[in-house]
Each structure stands twice: as C-alpha cells, then as structure tokens.
Amino acid sequence: MRVLVVIPAYRESRRLPALFGDIAAHLKKPAVRPFDVNFLIVDDGSGEEEVEKISPLISAHGLTEAVSLVQLGVNQGKGAALKAGFKSGLRSGYDCLGFMDADGSVPVSALYEVIDYLHKRADTPLAAVVASRVEMLGRDISRSLFRHYVSRAFATFVSLYFRARIYDSQCGLKVFKGDVLKRYLDAPTDPRWV
Predict the structure, then answer these.
(1) Res. 135 pLDDT band, cuts 50 70 90
(2) What pTM was computed for the model?
(3) What order of strands is seen across the sheet that includes strand 96-100?
C-alpha cells in the first residue's frame, strides 16, 4: 500500500524543521509495516524566498527520498493546497492520501497508527480515518474560550451533517482511501478552508 501525506504550508519554514525531524526519526526505525509513506509539502503561494528556505531543510534532514515540494503560484487557501496535493497523488497512483498540518500538533507516530488502522481494514467499507486530539496530563493546550466553543459547534455540525461521530473535525490528521477521495475531490468547496 502506497500512501501520500500532503502537508499544506503557508509561510511555515520556521515550523517545518521540527516536523522534518520527527519524520526523519520515524523513517530511521526499522520498516516493519506493509506500506510505503511519502510526504508532499504544498507551498500555498508563500513566495520564492520562503520556498528557498524549505528545500534545504528537506536535504538537511536527509529526506530527499521521502519528502517532495510543490509550489502554488499564489495563495489560494488550505483547501486548494490539499486539493492540489491530492490530485498529484491520485495521478501518481497512491492507494491512500492523507494530510497533516505543518505545525506538528500531531506526531508522525500517530500518522503511522492511523495508516496502520486503515490498512488493517482494507477489505471493509471504511473510507477514511479522522484523528482526534485529546487533552493529556502534562500538556498545555492554549486556546481562547471563544475558539473552543466555535470548534465544538463546528464539530457538532460536521457530525450531524455526515451522520458520523467526529469529536475533533479540525484535527490536522486525516487519511482517505484514494478511490473514495477521487469521487469527491471535484465537489464544490470553499478553497480557503474546506
């Protein structure tokens, strides 16, 4: 099973080194999983100066085999960056496509757990795995009360609309089966976010 993980990025060169370090550390572990994972940074029109910072970071972390970079000419939003990355992955024949946020809020180990979960259920009607973040002892999640309630309201709407219990619809880690994603990729969306 081949998996492409899209990482949408807009002026993320400061945060990507931590994520690249996590990816590199994970790739150094012995490969015991029956899937191949590649990463695609989709720069969402950050400008040449920003892109010129990202390419050397990929090399410096020894990730030239696992991480690619494409640049959108102008900033179009996260939705457009994801769509561009997914379309690239589908053209390249990936079995599954996912995304994770550049801020590293979800560790790469969780990505592999999600992929493993989807892989083990390959013969089921399961179409995607949507991760959820939870607050844990010893970790500080700082966000305003307003943002908390807006996120809860949106997650409730998503759960009702899709008739699926999704606690954290805004979690930056999701993986989809390619054949399922292909059917919905050209549906009308708000390219800034959705």
Answers:
(1) low
(2) 0.82
(3) 67-72, 36-44, 2-9, 96-100, 173-177, 128-130
